[in-house]
Structure prediction request, 339 residues.
Amino acid sequence: MRTFAALLALLAITPSAAAAQTPVGPRNRTEAVKIIAGLREIVSPHGLQAIETIPVGGIKQVVSIRSQDLRNPVILYLHGGPGFVEMPLDWWWNRGWDEYFTVVQWDQRNAGKTFVASGANDPSLLTPARFQADTEEVVRWALKRFNKRKIFVLGHSWGSLLGLKLAAAHPEWLHAYIGMGQITDGRESERRGWVWTRARAVADGNAAAVRELDAIAPYPAPPGPLPVDTILTQRKWLGHYGGAAWRRPGGEFEAAAIALAPEYGDDDVRLAFKGQPAVTAALLPTILTTDLSTIRTLRTPLILLLGRHDINVSSAVAAEWFRTVRAPAKTLVWFERSG
Prediction:
């Protein structure tokens, strides 16, 4: 019995002694990123992991490529925001995709690695039309780069506006269009978001939130683009009540993952969102009043991935549009515990 007790004592002491001699875990960002990069390294003889700088819209823009097998279909990811890069979130959000696809992440102009490569754009170039033209150029590049007749395109939030318009204009380029956080009737989505948020604030007894939300009513005020300050007020309280990330206030936890991205160096992390205020001011007022519900027919298959609790870009509004749109094939997938 005394031997057993001594063994238990030894087991209790040993980890503490070891911990005193050896640091536990990574000591800095460089060490943490090295661990993640090692776990994600692609060593398949048919695979590829690369960062490439390509000419798009008259400037240098940056894409990442990850594939366990380049013979797999290509999927191009159009990030949201505008200006919210998702290449540096790929290590967490999209882990495993490269087993089935050649995954291309693209940092759009004025964002992330493209901002680092090309600097701030002239404000006159930050227009929906310019971003749409960039999107078409990147698709043409991908078709040629990977020697494919067609690819998949996935648009997330703001990227879903670019993606759906691309699908309507160029179905010949796509196996299918995939919309996530799909923008359809922007003004109706904003209206429902305001109503939902104010109801939560009233139920919570949050007088400050109710006062600020009432101050921007009617929201969205017709006609024309929305003032940025009213958008930010609505989003401030919508995020506070978990309307963007289900059961989580705000979305800072997502952006924090950028600091551990193997694709991003220190300058990339520091400057990831440096250009976002400019694209927010230039694009968001128009984006959120865009009505894509007028697109009633697609000539490429359609897949929607919707969070049941997404109030930020109303999944209910997107689902209503989905029921009416015609496509060669269409599928709606609900994520029941997602915003």
